[in-house]
Amino acid sequence: MSAAAHPSTSLSERFALYLDLIRFNRPAGWLVLVWPTLVALWAASGGFPGWHLVLVFVLGTFLMRSAGCCINDIADRKFDRHVKRTAQRPITTGKISVFEAAMVGLVLTLLSLALVLTTRWEAVAWSVPAVLFTILYPFTKRFFAMPQAFLGIAFNFGVLIAFAAVQGQVPLMAWLLWLANMCMVLAYDTEYAMVDRDDDLKIGMKTSAITLGRFDVAAIMAFFVVCLGLTVLALAPLQLAWPWWLGVAVAAAQMLWHYSLIRQRTREGCFTAFSKSHWIGVSLFAGVALAFAL
Q1: Which long-range contacts (CB under 8 A, 24 or more apart) does 58-61 make?
Q2: How many CA atoms lie within 13 Å of 209's alpha carbon, on the beta-carbon side?
Q3: Residue 184 φ/ψ, nearest 5 degrees
Q4: How many CB atoms lie within 10 A of CB 193?
Q5: Taking the CB of residue 277, how many other CB atoms lie within 10 A of it?
Q6: Which residues have CB under 8 Å from 35's CB, separation 6+?
Q7: What span, in angstroms and rounded, lies between the C-alpha atoms of 281 and 32?
Q8: Spatial CB neighbours of 172, under 8 Å, sequence gap ≥ 6
Q9: What is d(CA 35, CA 103) in angstroms, rounded to the nearest whole number?
Q10: Each residue of 144-190: pLDDT tens digit?
């Protein structure tokens, strides 16, 4: 990871490559994760959980998603060169070695572990399978027809860890939110997979967009509906005030907007839908946070 190993690049240039590796300038990938985690944190705490837990989960989400990018790009380096969107990734082009990327991912994972160690041991325990699923996910695209479902498992551990950190347990509410956000991941990551469908078919990669075929758009909308329904069901015992329902309405309106973006299945429309999907999470979190603040 030193500049000496790459005499043609300076330290600042290598740092820029590492930022590219973790998609630092493309924050949509970690924003879609942080908002559902914050919803879970507020729900578990019955309101504002304190700045310590907020910082732990915001930074931890960013760090683990960044580590996941390293792992994903190492696993997919031979496939990415055949996909338009990914052909210029640092590992694929040889600008960053596999060893460098692995070391970056390891450092990010250890930093995330250090954060969760400042919470309860139950949260630390749930972090172990979260890391394992993150490592395994990229390899499921070789054999599993719906790898986005596996991604949903990996991505949604933040919801379970949030409840474990606050309550020392993972109650039914947490599992319902986990299932809701599994559907959300299936929706937005299928949109993402639709962007690369032509390239993925050529190289034999398996994705939900390929598996669902002509039912892709209908399935995405169904995932959105189930996500919203399960989220409302999960939080019903909290009897949240009117801002929550306003947030639900805004989220539902955005889901309808997504339909207008993806129904023609254009690369541009599908990518826009994915890149803006975190705003659904923003709406739901704002509704929860404002309802508790009243």
Answers
A1: 58/34, 59/112, 59/115, 60/112, 60/115, 60/116, 60/158, 61/30, 61/33, 61/34, 61/37, 61/158
A2: 21
A3: -65, -45
A4: 24
A5: 23
A6: 278, 281, 282, 284, 285
A7: 7
A8: none
A9: 28
A10: 777 778 777 877 899 999 999 999 999 999 999 999 999 999 999 89
Q: Where are the alpha helices (DSSP H) in 213-266?
A: 216-235, 242-262
In 3D space, the residue among 145, 147, 224 whose CA is nearest the CA of residue 181 turns out to be: 224
Q: Which residue has tokens 């801002």?
A: 243
3-state secondary structure (DSSP) of residue 169 = coil
Token pair for 45: 């705490």
Within 10 A of 179 (CB to CB), how many other CB atoms are there?
Answer: 19
Terminal CA-CA length for the chain: 50
Smallest CA-to-CA distance from 128 within 113, 138, 107 is with: 113
Place of tokens 């990996």: 154
- State the alpha helices, DSSP H only, in the chain: 11-21, 28-45, 51-75, 77-80, 90-93, 98-116, 121-140, 147-155, 157-167, 172-195, 197-203, 208-212, 216-235, 242-262, 267-275, 278-293
Give buried/exposed letters for 205-218 (b at 16+ CB in 10 A, else e): bbbbbbbbeeebbe
Q: What is the pLDDT of residues 29-81, one digit of tens each?
A: 889 999 999 999 999 999 999 999 999 999 999 999 999 889 888 887 877 77
Return d(Cα 59, Cα 130) in angstroms, integer.
Answer: 15
- Cα(14)–Cα(106) distance, integer angstroms: 17
Residues 6+ apart with CB under 8 A from 274: 28, 188, 189, 191, 192, 195
pTM for this prediction: 0.89
Reading the block at residue 7, the tokens are: 């005499």
